[in-house]
Structure to design on (894 residues):
C-alpha cells in the first residue's frame, strides 16, 4: 500500500475503556466483534479523537447521535490517553499521541520514527491530507453517515459525496465566495449612496423653496427676475443708497455716511448701517420736525382747553353745593348761637347743682330730727301728705325733689347739648363747602394763568379762555393740514426706504440659499465624493469579477465531479449489483444535478430515482455501494489507506451480509479494513474470509473494569 | 446633474408620469441635436432603436433606458434592434440614467454583444464601456435642455409634451 495504515492502537481511560488496552492492527483486515455496549465504538472512535481531539466532538455532520454530549474521559480510568501508530508508505512508524486535559483541551504530539516530535496538529493533518469532516465521511463510516449518502437532505448528500470525491475543498471555496454575497454588498452600498443622494436632494429642495419664495416676493415688489443674482443684489443696494442721498440732497439734509457694498458679502454690513442713517434723516428733516412741534402744541392746547372746561364745571358745582345747603345762616351766626346755647346750658348745670345741694341739706336735717320729731307731725312740706316714720318721710321728700326739680333740669340739659352738636356739624359742613368753592375757584384762576403762559398773552376777566384756545387750536390744525401733502410725500420716501431694507433682507436670503446650493452641488466635485464614486465603481468591478469567479469555480467543480463520478460509476453500479442482486434494477447511478447529486436505480431499459422504491436494507446497500466504490477508487484525496466500518450491516439480510464480506475481501487488496460489528452472521462471514486478518472479541464490559478485549486464536492461527 | 435640472426632471415626472420615459428620450435627443451636440438625430417613440445619431465622423444607434431603481433592463428586442443597426454600421449603444441627483447619463458601447446579454444592468456597470464623447456631451447639454424646456413641457402648446418636443427636435435638426 502506498498510504498510511494503522498498525497499533493503545487506549487508556477513553470513553468506555478504563485500563490500558493495546490492539495490534497490522493486518489488511481487522475484525472487532462484540455485542452492543461492550466498547467497540470506543475503540474505533479513539482513532479519530487521537487524530483530531476535541474538534470531532463538536461535529454534528451526518446526524451522528453518539456525539451528543460526548464524554471523552472515562472517570474510572487513571488518565485518558490514546496513541495510534501508523505505518508510513516508506515503512516507518508514525506515532500520534493525545492526552485529555479538559473537554476543550488536550496535549497532542506526533513523530515519525527517527524524526523530531511535533505538537502542530495542522501539520499532521496536512501530512495526511485530511480534515475531521473528511475523516468522518470517507474513512470512518458510521451507519448514519452511510445513510446520509442516500436519504439525507440534498445539501448534506452533496457534502458527503463531495468529500468522498475529494472535492470538498473546492466546494468550500465556492461556498466562501458565494457567502460573501458581493451583490448584496453592492446593494447595501447603493442604498447608502441613495440615502446620501436623498439627503442632498432634500437640502437642495429646501434651499430652492427659499429662493423661489423670496424671489417671488422680490418680483412682486418690482424687481426684475434677471436681477435676482448676487450682482443684482449689489446693484439694488447701491440704488437704495443713491435714493437716500438724493432724498438728503432734495431737502438739504446731511448725506448718509454709509459706503456702498463692494460685493455681495458687503451687503450684510450695509444693511446693518442703513437703519441708523434713515433714522438720522428722519430726525433732521425740518418739515417732520415742524409737524412734530405743531402736533405737540396742538395736543397741549387741546389738553388745556379740556382741563379748563372741566375746571369751570367744578367751580359751578362747588357753588351749587354751598347754596343748596339747608342751613342758610352764616358760619358766624351759627357760632354766635352756639355760644348762647352753651351759656344757657351752663345756667342749667348751676341750677342742678343748687337743687342737689339743697336736697342734701334737707336730708341731713331730717336725719338729725329723726328721733326728735313725733310721728303725727310728719307731713310733707311740699305736698302736705303725712307719713308714718321719718325714714318714709325722708324718702318721700327725695322723690318729690327729683320729680319736680332735678328731672326737668336734666331734660333741658340734654336738649341743649344736642342742639350744640347739631349747630357744630352745620358749621363744619358749611366750612368744607366754602373751602371747596374757594379751592376750585383758585384752580380755575391757575388754569387761566397756565393758558396765559402757553399762549403768551394776558387774559382779562372779560375774555373767554376756551374760545381763545379754540381759535389757537384751529389755527394749528390749519397749518398742519397745509403740511399734510408734503409730509405724506416725505413719509412715502421713508416707507420706501423701509421696504428697501426688507428687500435687502430678501436678497440676502436668496443669495445665501444660492451659495449654499452651490456648495451642496459642489459635493459632486469634491475629492472625497469622487473617491466614493471610484470606490463604488471598483466595488462593482469586484462584484462582477466575483460572480464570474464563482461561476467559473462552480463549473470547474462540477466538471471535476462529473469526471470523477464517471471514473467510478461502473464500480458503484457493480458494487450495488454484487450487494443486492436486484432483478428489476440491478444498477445504481450517481449523477450531477443542479441541486447536487441524484442517485438513481438503473436497468437495461429504465432509470428511476432510488429513494422512493428502495427498502431500508436496499438504501443501506446503495449507500455502502457508493462509499465502498469511491473508497476503493484512486479518487480518494486523503492519504489514510484504511477504512473503518462501524456496524455496516444494519437491516441487511444474510445474503447481503455475505456479499458485503465478499466486497470487503476484495477491498483488502487496496485498503486496510477495520470492521466493527455486533452482527454474528457478518462476524462469521468475515471470519471465514481467506485474508490475512486479526480478529478481536470485546465482551464483559463493566463500568470500572471496561471491556475484556481478546484476540481470537483461530484468526491469529489463520493469519500466521 | 445640477439640482435645477434634477428638480425640473422631478417636476416633469410628477406632471407626466406615464410619458416621462419618452420625454427624457426626446430631451436627450435634443441635447445631441445639431445645435447642441452636433448630431443629426432621429428619435423613435414606438418601434425600432430609440435614437439614431449621425455626424460626419460617426453613427450611433442608442437604446434609451431610465430607472428610478438601481438597474435598467435590457431586453431581447433591444439587443436584436441594436444588432441589426450594428450590421448597418452603427455603433450600438445604451444610454442609461438613474433618476438621482448624483447621477448623469451613461452612454455605453455594447458592440461586444456577448458581454451584454438581456438582463438588468446598473448604469455604473455600463459606465465601464462608456463612450466618453457622448457622455460628456450629454453631461454638458442635457441639464440645460431640461431647464430650458421645463416650463413648456409642463404646459406644452397643444397639451401634448411628446408632440411638442418632437417638433422642437425636428426644427432644431434642420
Amino acid at each position: 500500500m502506498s498510504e498510511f495504515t494503522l498498525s497499533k492502537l493503545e487506549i487508556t481511560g477513553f470513553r468506555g475503556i478504563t485500563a490500558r488496552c493495546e490492539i495490534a492492527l497490522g493486518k489488511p483486515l481487522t475484525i472487532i466483534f462484540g455485542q452492543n455496549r461492550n466498547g467497540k465504538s470506543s475503540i474505533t472512535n479513539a482513532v479519530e479523537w487521537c487524530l483530531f481531539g476535541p474538534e470531532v466532538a463538536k461535529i454534528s455532520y451526518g446526524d451522528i447521535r453518539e456525539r451528543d454530549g460526548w464524554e471523552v474521559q472515562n472517570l474510572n480510568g487513571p488518565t485518558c490517553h490514546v496513541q495510534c501508530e501508523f505505518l508510513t508508505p516508506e515503512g516507518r512508524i508514525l506515532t500520534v499521541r493525545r492526552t485529555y486535559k479538559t473537554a476543550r483541551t488536550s496535549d497532542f504530539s506526533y513523530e515519525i520514527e527517527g524524526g523530531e516530535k511535533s505538537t502542530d496538529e495542522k501539520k499532521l493533518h496536512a501530512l495526511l491530507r485530511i480534515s475531521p469532516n473528511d475523516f468522518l465521511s470517507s474513512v470512518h463510516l458510521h451507519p448514519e453517515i452511510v445513510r446520509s449518502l442516500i436519504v439525507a437532505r440534498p445539501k448534506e448528500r452533496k457534502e458527503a459525496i463531495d468529500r468522498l470525491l475529494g472535492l470538498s475543498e473546492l466546494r468550500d471555496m465556492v461556498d466562501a465566495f458565494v457567502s460573501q454575497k458581493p451583490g448584496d454588498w453592492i446593494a447595501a452600498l447603493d442604498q447608502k449612496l441613495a440615502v446620501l443622494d436623498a439627503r442632498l436632494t432634500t437640502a437642495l429642495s429646501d434651499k430652492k423653496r427659499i429662493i423661489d419664495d423670496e424671489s417671488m416676493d422680490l418680483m412682486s415688489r418690482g424687481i426684475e427676475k434677471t436681477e435676482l443674482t448676487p450682482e443684482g443684489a449689489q446693484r439694488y443696494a447701491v440704488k437704495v443708497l443713491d435714493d437716500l442721498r438724493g432724498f438728503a440732497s432734495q431737502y438739504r439734509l446731511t448725506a448718509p455716511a454709509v459706503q456702498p457694498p463692494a460685493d455681495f458679502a458687503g451687503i450684510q454690513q450695509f444693511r446693518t448701517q442703513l437703519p441708523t442713517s434713515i433714522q438720522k434723516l428722519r430726525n433732521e428733516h425740518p418739515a417732520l420736525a415742524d409737524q412734530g412741534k405743531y402736533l405737540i402744541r396742538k395736543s397741549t392746547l387741546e389738553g388745556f382747553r379740556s382741563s379748563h372746561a372741566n375746571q369751570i364745571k367744578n367751580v359751578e358745582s362747588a357753588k351749587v353745593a354751598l347754596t343748596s345747603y339747608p342751613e342758610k345762616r352764616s358760619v358766624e351766626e351759627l357760632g354766635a348761637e352756639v355760644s348762647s346755647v352753651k351759656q344757657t346750658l351752663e345756667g342749667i348745670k348751676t341750677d342742678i347743682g343748687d337743687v342737689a345741694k339743697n336736697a342734701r341739706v334737707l336730708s341731713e336735717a331730717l336725719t338729725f330730727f329723726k328721733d326728735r320729731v313725733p310721728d303725727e307731725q310728719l307731713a310733707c312740706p311740699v305736698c302736705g301728705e303725712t307719713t308714718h316714720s321719718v325714714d318714709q318721710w325722708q324718702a318721700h321728700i327725695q322723690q318729690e325733689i327729683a320729680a319736680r326739680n332735678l328731672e326737668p333740669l336734666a331734660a333741658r340739659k340734654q336738649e341743649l347739648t344736642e342742639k350744640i352738636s347739631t349747630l357744630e356739624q352745620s358749621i363744619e359742613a358749611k366750612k368744607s363747602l366754602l373751602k371747596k368753592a374757594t379751592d376750585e375757584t383758585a384752580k380755575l384762576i391757575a388754569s387761566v394763568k397756565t393758558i396765559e403762559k402757553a399762549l403768551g398773552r394776558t387774559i382779562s376777566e372779560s375774555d373767554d379762555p376756551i374760545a381763545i384756545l379754540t381759535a389757537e387750536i384751529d389755527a394749528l390744525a390749519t397749518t398742519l393740514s397745509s403740511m399734510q401733502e408734503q409730509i405724506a410725500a416725505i413719509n412715502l420716501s421713508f416707507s420706501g426706504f423701509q421696504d428697501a431694507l426688507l428687500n435687502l433682507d430678501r436678497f440676502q436670503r436668496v443669495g445665501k440659499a444660492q451659495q449654499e446650493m452651490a456648495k451642496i452641488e459642489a459635493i459632486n466635485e469634491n475629492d472625497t465624493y469622487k473617491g466614493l464614486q471610484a470606490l463604488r465603481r471598483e466595488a462593482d468591478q469586484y462584484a462582477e469579477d466575483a460572480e464570474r469567479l464563482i461561476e467559473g469555480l462552480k463549473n470547474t467543480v462540477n466538471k471535476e465531479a462529473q469526471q470523477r463520478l464517471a471514473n467510478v460509476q461502473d464500480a458503484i453500479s457493480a458494487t450495488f449489483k454484487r450487494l443486492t442482486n436486484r432483478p428489476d434494477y440491478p444498477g445504481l447511478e450517481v449523477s450531477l444535478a443542479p441541486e447536487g447529486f441524484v442517485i438513481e436505480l438503473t436497468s437495461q431499459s429504465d432509470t428511476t430515482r432510488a429513494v422512493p422504491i428502495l427498502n431500508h436494507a436496499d438504501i443501506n446497500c446503495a449507500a455502502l455501494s457508493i462509499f465502498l466504490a469511491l473508497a476503493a477508487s484512486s479518487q480518494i484525496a486523503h492519504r489514510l489507506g484504511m477504512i473503518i466500518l462501524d456496524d455496516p450491516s444494519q437491516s441487511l439480510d444474510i445474503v447481503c451480509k455475505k456479499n458485503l464480506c465478499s466486497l470487503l475481501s476484495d477491498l483488502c487488496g487496496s485498503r486496510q479494513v477495520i470492521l466493527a460489528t455486533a452482527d454474528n452472521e457478518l462476524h462469521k462471514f468475515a471470519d471465514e474470509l481467506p485474508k490475512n486478518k486479526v480478529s478481536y472479541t470485546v465482551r464483559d464490559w463493566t463500568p470500572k473494569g471496561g471491556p475484556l478485549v481478546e484476540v481470537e486464536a483461530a484468526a491469529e492461527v489463520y493469519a500466521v | 446633474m445640477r439640482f435645477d435640472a434634477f428638480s425640473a426632471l422631478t417636476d416633469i415626472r410628477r406632471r407626466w408620469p406615464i410619458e416621462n420615459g419618452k420625454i427624457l428620450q426626446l430631451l436627450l435627443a435634443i441635447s445631441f441635436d445639431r445645435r447642441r451636440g452636433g448630431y443629426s438625430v432621429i428619435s423613435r417613440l414606438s418601434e425600432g432603436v430609440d435614437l439614431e445619431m449621425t455626424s460626419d465622423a460617426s453613427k450611433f444607434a442608442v437604446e434609451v433606458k431610465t430607472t428610478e431603481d438601481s438597474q435598467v433592463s435590457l431586453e431581447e428586442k433591444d439587443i436584436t434592434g441594436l444588432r441589426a443597426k450594428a450590421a448597418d454600421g452603427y455603433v450600438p449603444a445604451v444610454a442609461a440614467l438613474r433618476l438621482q441627483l448624483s447621477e448623469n447619463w451613461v452612454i455605453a458601447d455594447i458592440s461586444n454583444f456577448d458581454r451584454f446579454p438581456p438582463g438588468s444592468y446598473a448604469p455604473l456597470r455600463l459606465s465601464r464601456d462608456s463612450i466618453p464623447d457622448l457622455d460628456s456631451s450629454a453631461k454638458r447639454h442635457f441639464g440645460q435642455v431640461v431647464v430650458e424646456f421645463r416650463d413648456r413641457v409642463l404646459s406644452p402648446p397643444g397639451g401634448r409634451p411628446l408632440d411638442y418636443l418632437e417638433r422642437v427636435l425636428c426644427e432644431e435638426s434642420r
The CA atoms of residues 265 and 508 of chain A lie 9 Å apart. The mean pLDDT of chain A is 86.
